[in-house]
Kinesin-like protein
Amino acid sequence: EGRETRLRVVLRVRPLTCTETRRGDQQVVHSLGDGAVHVSAARHDATFGFSAVFDAGASQEAVFEGSGMRQLVELAMDGFSCTVFAFGQTGSGKTYTLMGPLGQSDAQPAPPALLGLMQRSFTCLLEQSRSRASDLALSASYLEIYNEQVRDLLSPGPPCALPLRWSKSRGFYVENQLSVEFESLEAIVSLLLQGSQRRRTSAHALNRHSSRSHALLTIHVRSRAVSAHPAPGQGWGAQGSARGACPSKQGTLCFVDLAGSERVKETGSSGELSVEANSINRSLLALGHCISLLAKPRGKRTHIPYRDSKLTRLLARSLGGSGITLMVACISPSSRCLSETLSTLHYASRARRVTTRP
Ligand code: ADP
Ligand code: MG
């Protein structure tokens, strides 16, 4: 607490897809063990280091346990603001890592072994909350950033834009966002499905792909030590209100599924700048810019332009403030994705130098 902590950056390399194998794509990414990964192709030969590297053979469970996700859940329960974000080009496995194949089809529920970081974290959170000697209140909010508009994925009716505000005590926050309480795994998974469905159907109606929006699911954890003789009439305390020796704590656990990173280049070269591509462009560039500046030593840092995009405003605390952050960089091992893969690896390496003060 209060000490400078680095962002934890792990890498996941997905297996070659059937299409990639069939057309004979070369595998250019190789895990060397101990968090090192090697990229070798015609004119490229580079090694990168991360806190952990998960290759094609890594199970969803191995990613959950080896990435530090379990600790992140526990820290959220201790009152910290925790964020995990998945980053990488479209098709690199971000949604698979966060949600499992459930992100793709609603017809069949995913087998338990394929559930992603989100469902595993929910399970862990609910198990812990039962075993700890404290009362917990859990609630969830789910937002997407689409065309530089923040939209609530949980409130009924057509999606409408919500204002993003700033206050001294709260930092950047979204006004009027719906927060839904839940007590069971079924309830939170159904909220996740509902929200993802809304994200997809609204994208579908506009004939656009879902990966063109950034999605943020936040679990709010409010905990209070259970006292043997609860004072009558006392509900959940306000932040910081002490009850006996144990003050109440409010932690958050935020899952961020970023839009595909390759848009930046595509739009830059095509010249056909749709509003949508422009927005993704803008927010991912702003995020990259903030990360580059934050990667400098604290003493040498200049102003960090969080205000350049909605995404960076919402991630300000996770990146440069008091949050604890895990970044999962996702890449494809295929030779055809080489340039995107290298750009993701450079981006992720830079993020390793970013520090926060939880
Ligand atoms: P993104 O969200 O980054 O666009 P997806 O998560 O949708 O990418 O993954 C693209 C495709 O690759 C999907 O069909 C997904 O099921 C598959 N895939 C991704 N990662 C893995 C993995 N680790 N193991 C097996 N299949 C994967
Ligand atoms: Mg996706």
Q: What stands out?
A: The first helix runs from residue 18 to 22. The pocket of adenosine-5'-diphosphate (ligand 1) is lined by residues 14-15, 17, 88, 90-96, 101, 211, 260, 330 (CB under 6 Å).
